[in-house]
Amino acid sequence: MTVAEAYSEVAERLARVNPLEISNLPSLESMSERVEELVYKKKDGNISVDETVELERYLSLNLLISLAKTKAKDMVTVGDNGHFSVNYNEEERALIKQIKEDTSPEIIQRFYQLNREQRERKLTDVEQKELEELIYKMETADARFLEAMIKLSKIWGVTTKEVRTKLEIQIPAPYVC
Predict the structure, then answer these.
(1) Which residue from 137, 149, 141, 140 is spatially nearest to 101, judged by alpha carbons?
(2) How far apart are CA 127 and CA 32, in angstroms?
(3) What is the rounded CA–CA span in Å between residue 139 and residue 35?
(4) What b/e readout covers 25-62, taking b as 16+ CB neighbours within 10 angstroms?
(5) pLDDT tens, 120-163?
(6) Rounded CA gap, 74 and 81, in Å?
(7) What is the torsion angle, in degrees rounded to the nearest 10, for the CA atoms of residue 57, residue 60, residue 66 and residue 68?
(8) Would you say the pTM of this structure is higher than 0.70?
(9) DSSP strand E in the chain: where?
(10) Terminal CA-to-CA distance of the chain, rounded, Å?
């Protein structure tokens, strides 16, 4: 990997954390003033070794910020109504869809009903089989949810908690009554 590719990859990961916020990052006045001062010193030939290193670090940081802002702007669109939205690639859209797919309320309601009845009385063989199938469906849905969350967190380079926050996902209530 080249240095340019590394900068690009890091900038992309930064941009994906919060494209809207990153695309609107203001320039830092104090940084700009110091860079300007160092550039003048360099032009005049009055720059020390430490100041040269400082200037190079500022320029590297500026490059990274500029790349992240550019990548973030490419991820954000403005709709006809003036609202901003984030553009996700195909893989991200598929994972977000998988994350947001909930177990149907009917399945959860039936699970709770059978679970309650199981505590009150012995279930029939048919009811017991139905309860086991519901548990399997719910556990499978949970596993798909977690798998998608982990994949998306790896793509974005953030924690699963940050993915939940970004996508405004509430932690589901436990299935246990």
Answers:
(1) 141
(2) 70
(3) 56
(4) eeeeeeeeeebeebeeeeeeeebeeeeeeebeebeeee
(5) 888 899 999 998 998 888 888 888 888 998 998 888 888 888 88
(6) 19
(7) -100
(8) no
(9) 76-78, 84-86
(10) 52
